[in-house]
Amino acid sequence: MDRLSTLLKHFNLHAATFHQGGFCGTTDLYGHGSYGHVHLLRSGRLTFRDKRNQLIELAEPSLVLVARPQQHQLVATEVDEAQLVCATLLFDGGADNPLTLALPDYIVKPLGELPGLTANLDWLFEEAFSDECGRDVVLNRLFELMVIQLLRHMMANQSLPTGMMAGLADVRLARAITLMHDTPAKPWSVGELASAANMSRASFAAQFRKVVGKTPADYLLSWRVSLAQKRLREGRPIGLIADEVGYESPSALARAFRRKVGASPREWLQQ
Which residues of 238-255 are buried (b: 16+ CB within 10 A; e: fewer)? Predict the structure, then answer.
């Protein structure tokens, strides 16, 4: 069972490094457009201010991930001697896709608490502070790999209490969620999903709602609509999309889409 590959196949991320080196002053990162951000403090001190003006002081090498477009601020003085490597993140399927929506507003972690990322981070810092040819391309790929490794770490440590990532961290629920991710067109019943999770129907339904925050049927609907939104952005015809995500006709998809989004596929795409 691969809990991440299908998710990342549909909603893959693309990093673009925009800063490496010393940092001094105040930088505002705005929540406009489709970009998230990731910041790595290699050494020194840094202050992170979130969109609610909450301050987090970083006094050791740390990772800051802001997966969705959100305003935040980085502050350091000359005395702080901050060394930073930063990148933007762009996700297939838009900024509000199931993967980014499953993550908190931001994640701040000391690098010492992320042992599974050590080898990659060592390579990333070595590239960032050298002058090798192809450096930017290598850095971008290492940032992308780092985010995937962070997702693995969060699942292994059950870092999130609720939502899709919490469901994927639950070994039994993950079997059912992965089946829905892999074959969304199948008309999954609660009984089939419960059997895959090796649970009774009642226990599965209760545990799914408690951990994921919605019923299995509503989760499947949300997943199908998210896939439809991605395909609409890509210019795919709605008739083909309907078949791919499990609806017998474009009108059936449109009804489900409106129930979930509050607009028809055409209206949503125009917006």
Answer: beebbebbbbeebeebbe
